[in-house]
Every structure is written in structure tokens, then in C-alpha cells.
Design brief:
Beta-galactosidase, Chain A, domain 5, 2 domains, globular, Glycosyltransferase, alpha+beta, 29 strands, 8-stranded antiparallel sheet
């Protein structure tokens, strides 16, 4: 059985990633890309659906773990009364020949410790049993286009469609296990030097982390979030996946289980801002270039999410043979939200391009032409209902946040044209901006409640309303906005954490509920800081930091009642929100609650 979601750590090579449990089990691995079919799927099934476990034979061994410095090299320590062993897990940078390596080093520190190893490879999300054969360097497993080689000096025992080993590790001894994926139609690649690979991987991550501009008092959580964001980047294209997993549930035993191994446009501005304020200009340029390529084409065919290279055909289907994480069915691959209509993505894209210009990123004329084409299309569709930022599977609505982001699209285009001398129908855009704003203030604000609401004509709240001050639609100190923030604190908080909306209202067309959404909780932190409630903001931020697991990772959601992480893991949006909140709080660190707000962000810069 898989461990609780928060018990996993991440290793990766910016092509794909693996989840490693505290007990030394790799229960999720897709090769060779994030969105490839898993060859180890115990996370959403059972061990018979594929895993790779290395552990102390003594079930009472104590376990601690940490990442080596500012890297993605994981070190898990097993201690018994007689011995101490460290398991080092990492994935070296991906090779151009298409191979992917996963290295596990069992390192004896003191005494002698019996160890156990078990490998079950099941391609096709746990369904396909490969042909396994022993060779001098270990074993090879082949099925269809996929081949895996396990190289180790340990004697392996193959029986009952699984590979096992028992061995003893002594002090000052290192025993390697190197798992290599390669296309089955090619010859196996040369064997990797595992110790040299460890040194090279540590050096590469240290070099990357040294570029960071993150400072105290929140450097550690910020830098770990940046490393996680880098690990979720598909380096050949610059696209960033929302998470490396699929179908980890938003409610244990429920049906809110989605595939997040894709790139969402709704995260565009959050991502760009987090990268730029942290010193990662090259990654920001690559993300912006990916965004332009993904959106290229007919504006009417713009999607809310794309594949790693900008793929558009992402059909959703269910894997009936997998029972799901803690019996949370169905397990889904692909995402039908790619076919939804979501207005806010236009504002995200235009805002991202505008902020790229503000920070001096090189954007050619094609970016402006694309932006204008998107605006021409938006002019014709902004007044239509949509599925909204939360991708509801119920009826379309006139969601307030969607309309605000339509306003953002024209607002940022106007400011780009004015600031950078770009051509465009300014008078026309200004009139549209004013019209959309008037519509939002008239229909998105409920005078009886005295707050903004989730969609026009409703009386329910939505945490996406916390983004209105962050995109500079209204200041947080505006009485209407202040009342909305206070209402969200009263009605959407669970143990100090923010729910996206009241699922019991049935707006999303799905049964069951979900946990508190961590990104929304960080957005509340930002709003409190903008209101001058710095003490409240810092306390909430510190509470959110306690929800990271022992190696600093955040899931999508959290259930305060069961104290369990929920949703796909680790979640890029949660870590993006942490990075941006830390930056927004840093100027106020140590200030008393009564002190006045600091200098506001530039009016034309989105500060998530």
C-alpha cells in the first residue's frame, strides 16, 4: 500500500521525476517524460503495479531524510542499534541520446546492516509485464518501445514476476543500483559511473541554486520551492508541469482525481514573476517562449492547458485496472479540461508578455502580433459564460474572476502599447476595458452581501476573488474588496486555511468535497499584507510553512481534520504561491501589526 502523500520526496532530471517514500520505495515513475506511461504505479495501485524498494531489513530501523544542500539529491538514513546506512537517490541530468538514469547508492556509515531490495517493473501504468532476462551487468526488462536495465553488483533473484535481493552493507562500503531507461530498438547505452554521476549531479544543482537571489528570512522555503519548480520543468521546451502525478485525490475515496502532468496557462504570470524575482532570467525566457509557441495558431482554439511541448490533443480516459490511491477511483490519464472554455487564460498570457517586457526580456514582434490576435478574439467572447479558473464540470457561468482577467488582458495591452510604443487601437481597447470593468462592478458585486461573489448574480464566495487586488483590479483597501476578504475569512476558512469555494453548493457538478487549497491560502496572506495586517499575514504564512513535509514539499490541498496532504504532489502552483508570498512579506518582516503598508507594487505589474 502506498504511503500518505506527504511521506514522499521528489527526485528528477528536468525530463521526468520519481516519488520516493520514507521507507525507500519508488512508487511512481514515468519514463522517459513526465507524461509517459508509468512503469512504477504503486502510488495509485498496489506494489504489484510496479515499485523499486531499497530498505533496511530491520522493520524497526529509524528513518530520517533530507536533500543534500540546495540540490535534488535525496539522502535517507536508516539507523539500527548496530549500524547506520544512507540511501542516496538521484537522477543525473538527462542525456541527449534519450536515456534516463535513476541512481540509488547504498552507503554504509557504521556497523553492518542487512538490506532488502525488490523491483517490480510494470509498463503501461502497471498493466504490462515485461520480458526480463539476466545479463552480466544485472537484468534487462523489455516490453514494446520501452527497455529498462538494472545494473548492480548484488546477486539478484527473479521469481514470481519480481526481482529481489538480500545483502549486507558494511561501513565505508557503497553498493550501487543504477536503473536506466532506453528505447528498446536501440542497444543498451554504456554503463554509468554512479559515483561520478552523484558528484556531477550535486555540482549541477549547486551551480543552479547559486543563481538564486532569495534572501532571509524565508530563503530556505523559497529556495526549496524554486528547486521543485525547476524539477517540474521539461527542459527541452521550457514548459512546466503542474505536478508530476495523476489522480492523487482531492478527497480520499472520492472522484476528484485529475491528471496534472501538463502545463496550464493560468499559471503563466505566477510562474514568470516567481522566476524573475528569484534571479532565474533564463528560465523565465524559456517559459515565455514556450507560452508563445503553445498559444500560436487560431486564437479561437486557445486551450487552458497543453502538453510538455505544446501538444493539444490530451484526451481523458480511465485506467480501470488501477484501484486508485486509497481506493480513490477513477485513475485518469489525460485531462478533458483541455477542451473547456476558460476566459482567464487570455489575461494570463497578455499579462505574462507585458511583465516580460517590463523586465527587459527579449520579445520580438511576433509576441505583439499574437497578443493583438488574442485580444481581437477576446473582444468577441469576453461576455460569454465559461468553466472558470477551477474548471468546473457543471454548467458554465459568468465567473467574476474570469471577467476580471478579461479586463487584465486589455489593461496590460494598453499599458504595453503606451510604455513601449507598440501599435494598437488604444481608444477602442480603453473603451472595452471600461465596459468590462463596469460590468464586473455592477454584476460581480452583490450589494446585499456587500462583497464580490463567485459568479454574476450569485451570493456565494470564491477564493479566486483574492486575486483581484493582486492583478490591480482594485486595491485591497477598497471597502468592497476589504469586505470580500473579511467574508472569505469568515466563510471559506478551515483551521486557518482557505477553501476554493463551498463545494456543497454544487457549482462544480461533482460529488463529494475537497480539502483547503494551499495556493488560495497564500493569496490570503498577500491580501492581509496589502491591508497592512502584517502580523496576521506572517502568522498565516508561518502556519503554511508547517504544512510542508519533512523535505519541504507541498501538495495541492490539505485536510486540517485528518492532517493529510491531498491532491497531486508536489504542486507547482502551491510552491509558486509560497515564493511570491515570501517576496511580498519580506519587506514587512518583524513589523508590528499596526504599522502601515510598505510601497505598493507598480500598477502595471502583477504581484501574485
Amino acid at each position: 500500500m502506498a504511503e500518505s502523500i506527504e511521506q514522499y520526496a521528489l527526485i528528477g532530471n528536468t525530463h521526468t521525476a520519481a516519488l520516493v517514500s520514507r521507507r525507500g520505495a519508488i512508487d511512481w515513475l514515468c519514463l522517459p517524460r513526465f507524461d509517459s506511461a508509468a512503469c512504477m504505479a504503486a502510488l495509485v495501485g498496489s506494489e504489484r503495479h510496479g515499485h523499486f524498494t531499497l530498505r533496511a531489513a530491520d522493520p524497526n530501523a529509524t528513518i530520517t531524510r533530507y536533500y543534500h544542500d540546495d540540490t535534488l539529491v535525496l539522502e535517507t538514513t536508516f539507523r539500527t542499534p548496530d549500524a547506520t546506512v544512507v540511501l542516496v537517490d538521484f537522477m543525473p541530468p538527462a542525456e541527449e541520446d534519450g536515456r534516463v538514469d535513476l541512481v540509488r547508492l547504498v552507503c554504509g556509515l557504521s556497523g553492518e546492516m542487512p538490506m532488502e531490495m525488490e523491483l517490480i517493473v510494470r509498463f503501461g501504468y502497471g498493466r504490462i509485464v515485461p520480458w526480463v532476462r539476466r545479463q552480466a551487468d544485472g537484468l534487462h526488462a523489455v516490453a514494446g518501445p520501452d527497455a529498462l536495465r538494472l545494473a548492480t553488483p548484488v546477486s539478484l533473484d527473479n521469481r514470481d514476476l519480481r526481482t529481489q535481493a538480500r545483502f549486507t552493507i558494511q561501513a565505508q562500503q557503497t553498493i550501487p543500483f543504477v536503473l536506466t531507461w532506453y528505447p528498446s530498438h536501440k542497444e543498451p547505452p554504456p554503463l554509468l559511473d554512479p559515483l561520478a554521476a552523484r558528484s556531477g549531479t550535486i555540482a549541477a544543482w549547486r551551480s543552479w541554486s547559486a543563481q538564486s537571489s532569495a534572501t532571509e528570512p524565508y530563503r530556505e522555503p523559497t529556495q526549496r520551492s524554486l528547486i521543485t519548480l525547476k524539477a517540474l520543468t521539461y527542459s527541452p521546451t521550457g514548459g512546466i508541469v503542474a505536478a508530476p502525478t495523476t489522480s492523487l485525490p482531492e478527497e480520499l475515496g472520492g472522484v476528484r482525481n485529475w491528471d496534472y502532468r501538463f502545463c496550464w496557462l493560468r499559471d503563466a504570470s505566477f510562474t514568470l514573476y516567481a522566476l524573475l524575482i528569484s534571479g532565474y532570467r533564463r528560465e523565465a525566457e524559456q517559459w515565455t517562449a514556450w507560452l508563445r509557441r503553445a498559444c500560436a495558431g487560431m486564437p479561437s482554439q486557445t486551450q487552458i492547458l497543453y502538453g510538455l511541448a505544446g501538444e493539444r490533443f490530451l484526451p481523458e480516459y480511465e485506467l480501470s485496472w488501477l484501484p486508485g490511491y486509497e481506493n480513490s477511483r477513477p485513475v485518469r490519464v489525460g485531462n478533458a479540461a483541455s477542451e473547456q472554455f476558460q476566459l482567464d487564460v487570455f489575461g494570463q498570457v497578455i499579462d505574462c508578455f507585458h511583465n516580460a517586457r517590463l523586465h527587459g526580456l527579449e520579445l520580438d514582434e511576433e509576441n505583439w502580433f499574437l497578443g493583438k490576435a488574442l485580444l481581437d478574439h477576446l473582444e468577441n467572447v469576453w461576455n460569454r459564460p465559461d468553466e472558470g479558473i477551477w474548471e468546473v464540470r457543471g454548467a458554465r457561468q459568468h465567473f467574476t474572476y474570469s471577467k476580471v482577467m478579461a479586463w487584465v488582458a486589455f489593461d496590460r495591452a494598453i499599458k504595453s502599447a503606451q510604455r513601449f510604443g507598440l501599435d494598437g487601437p488604444l481608444d477602442h481597447w480603453q473603451a472595452l476595458r471600461a465596459r468590462i470593468r463596469e460590468e464586473i462592478l455592477h454584476r460581480g458585486f452583490n450589494p446585499r452581501r456587500g462583497t464580490f461573489v463567485q459568479y454574476f448574480g450569485s451570493d456565494v464566495l470564491d477564493a479566486s476573488l483574492l486575486l483581484l487586488p493582486l492583478v490591480h483590479f482594485l486595491p485591497a483597501t477598497d471597502q468592497r474588496m476589504r469586505a470580500t476578504i473579511e467574508a472569505i475569512e469568515r466563510e471559506l476558512l478551515i483551521d486557518g486555511l482557505v477553501r476554493r469555494y463551498a463545494t456543497e453548493e454544487g457549482i462544480d457538478g461533482l460529488p463529494g468535497g475537497e480539502g483547503a487549497f494551499l495556493a488560495c491560502s497564500f493569496w490570503l496572506v498577500d491580501n492581509l499584507a496589502m491591508l497592512g495586517r502584517h502580523g496576521d499575514a506572517q502568522r498565516r504564512f508561518q502556519h503554511l510553512l508547517t504544512l510542508r513535509n519533512d523535505v519541504g514539499l507541498l501538495a495541492e490541498e490539505y485536510d486540517p481534520q485528518s492532517r493529510r496532504a491531498l491532491g497531486n504532489f508536489p504542486q507547482a502552483l502551491s510552491h509558486l504561491a509560497l515564493i511570491n508570498s515570501a517576496a511580498n512579506l519580506r519587506p514587512f518582516y518583524g513589523q508590528s501589526p499596526g504599522q502601515s503598508p510598505g510601497k505598493a507594487a507598480p500598477e502595471d505589474s502583477m504581484i501574485p
